[in-house]
Amino acid sequence: ERKRFYQNVSISQGEGGFEINLDHRKLKTPQAKLFTVPSEALAIAVATEWDSQKDTIKFYTMHLTTLCNTALDNPTQRNKTQLIRAAVKFLETDTVCYRVEEPPALAELQKNEWDPVVAWVEKRYNVTIGSSTSILGPNIPASTKETFVSHLASYNMWALQGIEFVITQLKSLILSMSLIDRHITVEKAVLLSRLEEEYQIRRWGNVEWAHDYDLCELRARTAAGTLFVHLCSESSTVKHKLLQD
Questions:
Q1: How many structural domains comprise the chain?
Q2: Omega within 30 of 0 (cis) for the link into 141
Q3: Higher-confidence residue: 135 or 176?
Q4: Is the dihedral of CA 226, 231, 235, 237 positive or negative?
Q5: For 16-37, what is each residue's pLDDT tens digit?
Q6: How far apart are CA 66 and CA 211, in angstroms?
Q7: Is the pLDDT assigned to residue 238 strictly greater than 70?
Q8: CATH value at residue 191
Q9: What crossing angle do the helices spanning 142-152 and 80-89 adopt, rounded to 10°?
């Protein structure tokens, strides 16, 4: 944390996009690059994060700012192909593909809650995913992986950073794509990603404040990542058409 050193937050349009101004200083990334984002809506969202800070700046609450810094600095130096492959690799260990046989109540809960989402994704992308009770997980066909590789290639580098962030939070490509495609809500996606934990809480009780804190944090990160993807995927053509309509 750092003491708040600015009074006003504003945005301005520069040559490379939209910039964030803290009083008369331009925001910079950790690698001292000019903090420039591709859309005005994203700039407003980031500015809101900075403006909502009180006496001290809590960087760990500023998920959109962090995602922008990652997109601008690319600390892992990965290209688009590497980002896509990393995202698709999550299919091999996807949360909703690993099922239990015992206890029967949890197995039934997984079937009832996860199967409809898997079925929707299979239909939406015309792929085969399935599930397994084996520790090795299901055998995901190569054609399924290639379909997701092809789909993710339609996103730009910024959006891909956000998609990987959401997948990392939910430990699931299936839930992440369902969320980004607006088939399920953030609350539903987080609940489904924590299904076993929620089952155990209902059975054995809650640890005072700890589970609630973890749940709120996961929702906040997942929501920020999803919003980031949508704001980075904005098309000026689509935007113009919406304004006309």
A1: 2
A2: no
A3: 176
A4: positive
A5: 899 999 999 999 999 999 999 9
A6: 24
A7: no
A8: 1.10.3580.10
A9: 140
